[in-house]
What we know:
3 copies of one chain form a homotrimer.
Chain A: E1 8-11, E2 21-25, E3 28-34, E4 40-44, E5 58-60, E6 63-65, E7 72-73, E8 79-81, E9 95-96, E10 98-101, E11 104-107, E12 132-140, H1 144-152, H2 157-160, H3 168-172, E13 176-180, E14 183-193, H4 197-205, E15 214-223, E16 227-236, E17 249-262, E18 265-274, H5 281-311, H6 324-342
Antiparallel strand pairs in A: 1-11, 2-3, 3-4, 4-9, 5-6, 6-7, 7-8, 10-11, 12-18, 13-14, 14-15, 15-16, 16-17, 17-18
Helix pairs in contact in A: 1-6
Amino acid sequence: MFPLNHWYVACTPDEFADKPLGRTICGERIVFYRDGQGAVVALEDFCPHRGAPLSLGSVRDGQLVCGYHGLVMGCNGHTVAMPGQRVERFAGIRRYPVQERHGFVWVWPGDAAQANVAAIPDFVWSDNPEWAYGGGLYNIGCDYRLMVDNLMDLTHETYVHATSIGQPEIDETPCETLREGDQVITRRFMNGIGAPPFWQMAMRMNGLDPSAKVDRWQVCRFTPPSHVMIDVGVALAGHGGFDAPAQVKASATVVDFITPENETSIWYFWGMARHFKPHDASLTAQIRDGQGRIFAEDREMLERQQSNLLHWPRRRLMTLNIDAGGAHARRILEKLVAAEQAGQVDQTEGRPAAA
Amino acid sequence: MFPLNHWYVACTPDEFADKPLGRTICGERIVFYRDGQGAVVALEDFCPHRGAPLSLGSVRDGQLVCGYHGLVMGCNGHTVAMPGQRVERFAGIRRYPVQERHGFVWVWPGDAAQANVAAIPDFVWSDNPEWAYGGGLYNIGCDYRLMVDNLMDLTHETYVHATSIGQPEIDETPCETLREGDQVITRRFMNGIGAPPFWQMAMRMNGLDPSAKVDRWQVCRFTPPSHVMIDVGVALAGHGGFDAPAQVKASATVVDFITPENETSIWYFWGMARHFKPHDASLTAQIRDGQGRIFAEDREMLERQQSNLLHWPRRRLMTLNIDAGGAHARRILEKLVAAEQAGQVDQTEGRPAAA
Amino acid sequence: MFPLNHWYVACTPDEFADKPLGRTICGERIVFYRDGQGAVVALEDFCPHRGAPLSLGSVRDGQLVCGYHGLVMGCNGHTVAMPGQRVERFAGIRRYPVQERHGFVWVWPGDAAQANVAAIPDFVWSDNPEWAYGGGLYNIGCDYRLMVDNLMDLTHETYVHATSIGQPEIDETPCETLREGDQVITRRFMNGIGAPPFWQMAMRMNGLDPSAKVDRWQVCRFTPPSHVMIDVGVALAGHGGFDAPAQVKASATVVDFITPENETSIWYFWGMARHFKPHDASLTAQIRDGQGRIFAEDREMLERQQSNLLHWPRRRLMTLNIDAGGAHARRILEKLVAAEQAGQVDQTEGRPAAA
């Protein structure tokens, strides 16, 4: 289950720089490419001639050319031409609303009529010279809600990421969960503690003594459908923590866009936007590599948790206070899906694309 | 769906030269080996004792010996002997009509009583010293009809095989499709054009100037159940094309035996019989290697087309004039399957072999 | 189908020496580890918090700690603690009766109330300084009954193991099958024959002339649920065979514990306990390596036999006198399963563990 009338992060521009990209998003097989004006286009990955995936084709003068028999597909999902053929009666294919924003391509897998560009969230770190961003993509075999749970309850850092960002103080410190409309916030403030290895590195990079006591914070924000932004950082103890002046802290936002591929698989776009030394590209690379290693530690746990849940489909899980963030997120998702289903326009397969 | 009362190419003799070969043909698990007279035998790959695959056994004095407990199977599907056992009451296994012809083993997976050796087609290139043959075998994950479509519409060469045999003139030139009984012919004649790389090589090999203008032809012939022979070639322009004298042309027959393994997988026996320099074995090898590379280019397209068709099972495809060959072939196959089903003798599992 | 109220060999202690072991036994996902007293514990491999596999966790002070969020699981299947949480209302997980015996861990996947430690069989070779044991573990994709059949009918040695322990005299010599309660014995005595390669090696190791004529014996004993012990050996001909004095023979017990992983997969613990030169560790290693190679020869046969039986589900197999051992074993298993089902306590999923 996932709501369809939302913007999901589908890919990054480099993924279709040379040739079209085929990717399944929320169960929809989609091809991404750029039109003649350089705008991203998202269409069903299905040639109306014989069903070949258009993503095996190429882009010619901003139009997608099927790699099997040369059908030329227009950016609106209607066939433009095919060698030696009249194409008026060709069935259209579905076009998906798509936007390029914040360094990502966002796609709307649901009802195109409801797509609202203003609904793509803004981020302070995007296109901001005071911030630097680095990240990557993992394809993980789990329900996207298991990853939301993972990120809305960071006590797992103590166990899964014990050698990098985990520390016992995380599960010793109670967290607080707030719901603001369809946004969920889980936050934890740990004051006067030692910094774990990852943050010691960040302090060193930022000119701070890594052995100093710090105030550490984690503020996780879930927004539908499945974005989790986590403000994280450490400040020298007693300077105000999250609100401390820049010169005594190292802070960042962990960026998590969790896009369902299908019911039990995700495209996980992870990254970190940091608010210090933004022009140090080698630091960006170093942090990205470290984060990539840390986040890879979750993969086996999530995939085997998924396997267990499929094996014991009727067993109920516990929802503790540390799980409140994930639980609220699930209830919001259920509400959104129910609302979509109640108001759903019949979306029959093979429906022609909007003109 | 595939008709069963037909001869299918099952394998080549080298595949069971050293030990029995187990292969699934039209969903039937079959073991191939040679009897004491050197004749090919095709039996169910199932030992009537404990169900072991007989293809894991060996051949002793022309009889198949099960590799598990030594049951000796006769070429008629009746057990001959088993150490220490009386075998009279052993269930027989099915024997399939089988013939060796044209360098291939042909099997009849349907009703043995209807098997007619005369129905195995003849080919001018077979056992003919003026022709040379080279080819190979690919196992591809698609419905066999997708490969028939592929071969009966060569406009895909322009896109899939752009660097070897494709050229724009293919889809610029209309093709003509004829149906003659249960045979379908699609043909295209392109006159006064440049030769594509594969044919330039053939011209060079044949003592012709590869930069000369040529008349090129493609005559695809489908015969049930799934053979597609394609007469192809180039002649120096203006000498009569297909009918030009041998010294001004390079011509060949592309040989395609497409045998269903099951509903979504095929054994694809591809090759080329050429009508020039037949004794040049290194040329045979060179052409076979080149053809193998070219035909491998179709694999990803066909397997992903198959995947798309399974993903969108109710979506209708377009049938254009270039697809007429494949469309006629499908109608013929549907007719043949319907006729088989109407007249079908009940073929219950475990039926004893014909004596 | 397999009876559940039995002791099955689950693993060997070395498999969970460093970290917990997750293994599926009779369809049950189980985690094995040692408690604070060093006793083996077997629990459902499912954390009651969020369903993570406990086998990805670690053992701390004899308690299993979930590797995801640090839940501390007690050896009785009840949660002991979790950082920052009250755990009284946590659902229990199932605890399986488990015993360490004869160098193996034995688990009872059925009704714990019926588990009777005395039902674990004794073996003369266990903890006996006159015997040496070496063995290994294979995971093979077949119904466990196919492996029972394999071991209760050794005529297959002539074919599958022709170069090591097979010889024509095996299937030339009739076997005798006895049923004693729920135990089945199949035995064969071959007198005055040459020894096959494996036994020639054993004779040489035991100071006997490997070219001498021998009396060879094979006595296979099946006991439920799926243990097959095979007394094997050779004695110089005419000294009494199985009953010959130790100095003229080489004898051993082939040990086979066949544990279902699920309906079509097994954990096959194979080994050999030998009754000569027990302190020669290099001989133990040599025999284990040889036996490992021999038993690996059965894998392809069993897996492809399983595939054939799934392909032809309604086809009946032959049961000959050589198959009487396996046939008796199957009838005993059917009787045991039927009795379990008749008397079954409702075992609903998620039932709390016994206190």
